[in-house]
Amino acid sequence: MSGLDHVRHLACVRCQATCAPGEAVYVCPECGGNLQVVYDYEAIGAKWSREALVASDDRSIWRYAPLYPVAGRIAAPPVGWTPLFETPRLATELGLKHLMVKDDGRNPSASFKDRASAIALVRAQEIGRDFVTGASTGNAASSTSVLAAAMGIKSRIFIPASAPKAKVAQLLAFGAEVLAVEGTYDQAFDLCLAATEQFGWYNRNTGFNPYTREGKKSVSFEICEQLGFELPDVVAVPVGDGNIISGVWKGFCDFHALGFIDRKPRLLAVQAEGSAAIVNAVNGDGEIREVSGETVADSISVSLPRDGEAAVKAVRESGGAGVTVSDQEILDAIPTTARGAAVFGEPAGVTGIAGLRRALEQGLISKDERVVALVTGSGLKDVASVMKVSGEPRRISPDPAKLGELFG
User: Fold this and answer.
1) 212-228 burial code (b ≥16 CB/10 A, e <16)
2) pLDDT one-digit tens code per residue, 59-109
3) Is the pTM of this model over 0.90?
4) In a domain, 349, yes or no
5) Residue 169 domain flag
6) Residue 314 placed within a domain
7) Which candidate in 200, 307, 330, 394 could, as Cys together with 242 as Cys, close a disulfide (CB 3.0–4.6 Å)?
8) Distance in angstroms (rounded) separating the CA atoms of residues 234 and 9
9) Number of domains in the chain
């Protein structure tokens, strides 16, 4: 595809109003709701086939370029095409017969969020912006700083002062200007929006910039390909702002509209008990209501989800469900995942896996179904939380003569 002739318009998730891409940078001009890119699938299908996709030797998100609302790409570092593999030991531990893990901690910034930043930053460049800002608990920020550095774009990031130091270190190492807000993620988000309006910086914020969802959907394309277009029954997703799960659903819908797949999986939304606005809405009347947002899983700590409406719609359209898990269950899932699947995830990263046990207990999934669980961030992102459940090393003498006392 050349240019953006395959993009029909942007459509509002809330009021369904439409506008051309050039008429709105971020949200719906009519009601302020989140926008979604709508494609001309007939035009895309006339120039791109499943066979052409399979024949591609590109092992990054850019193999799916015909389904993005940008004309360019980032040459390096490579984003996406992360491993998806069977985890029989972890499956047995959780009471499942078929469990696969998609390890997105293998991305350049060790986070799923690189997918979103790649598309959003290319969009920024294409409309002539060379200064990017965003608010984040860490992962969206670090992915923005990594890719901005690769593209020669300046970045200024708002984070809550409580963000894990490992994530802050990434931001600083890649040259971002970091502003630690003495408040919550939601306050940092609102402050970033105010700065965007006042100074005209390009805003990459999740659930505000419609192009982040377009990057996140690439994980679904990869799942389809890596499973030979034989779809799983369920995809378990950690949920905070709701932008990942809405993107996961959009990816499956895109491929289905093109005829690349003949069905779509159910989505399992998993949230921490203190940050469960989306799951509450899924299991209730569909309305997003503010919660405390308190959880050990900083990457999904959100009081008022910014892409909540699209997330609820995605779960319900998929015929899926939502569950909540305690902070202790989230922490326990770190060593469980590490020892059962050899994947080291941060608290938010393994929240989807933590929810599988609960979903089985509630009859939302069955032990015989094929399940894919997304691990969205590396455990190296939040070592302090990992140590809470992993314990401390034994301190021993360097004297060889003492070994017998220890192990004899």
Assistant:
1) bbbbbbbbbbbbbbbee
2) 999 999 999 999 999 989 999 999 999 999 999 999 999 999 999 999 999
3) yes
4) yes
5) no
6) yes
7) 307
8) 30
9) 1
